[in-house]
Amino acid sequence: xxxxxxxxxxxxxxxxxxxxxxxxxxxxxxxxxxxxxxxxxxxxxxxxxxxxxxxxxxxxxxxxxxxxxxxxxxxxxxxxxxxxxxxxxxxxxxxxxxxxxxxxxxxxxxxxxxxxxxxxxxxxxxxxxxxxxxxxxxxxxxxxxxxxxxxxxxxxxxxxxxxxxxxxxxxxxxxxxxxxxxxxxxxxxxxxxxxxxxxxxxxxxxxxxxxxxxxxxxxxxxxxxxxxxxxxxxxxxxxxxxxxxxxxxxxxxxxxxxxxx
Length: 261
Fold this sequence. Notes:
Shape: rod-shaped
Radius of gyration: 50 Å
Low-confidence stretches: none
CATH class: Mainly Alpha
């Protein structure tokens, strides 16, 4: 129904045929470009998925090691180390910033961690537990770095998923709706133009036939007028009627024809 409704709104002219062909070429190129974009995004999507799987697998081991390091620190330095650690830490040394990465026209958010400031090598007041607290801190720093990487991968994964769905919808629309509709319209215009060409040819043949009959009629009238003039001249020369002159001329013409044959 959609193709039929579009056909009814199109004027079948040569100009419109050229415009429809240009639109079909543009739709074909757009379909090819969107298909390449979808393939590129799908490749990137699969790579990110593999990274997410491997990161989540290693995340369990790292979080397990971090929790065990915290338990060791509490065992060595005592249970009440939270307040002492907070007193020795003034500003955050590990921070996160975001940037964007362009993949086939899609901007993917990326998170990066960076260190700012210096970290003390020992913690005053923790005695022999300071070394174990530093080891616990290093373990949790690794956990934070892995969490930042996982958050970046997860965000890129969701963004790519939406971009792939949108691109595939456009590809399917061009392939299943736009291109067939344009092709049907071009076929309709070509059929109408062929029909108009046949009508023009038939009209020219009819005009040529009419002109030919008109010329024959004028030649017959001229011949009849010439014969009448000759008959009048013969009638005046021999003193006979016009009908007798006509009969005499007919007999002479018939005799000439018999001689020829």
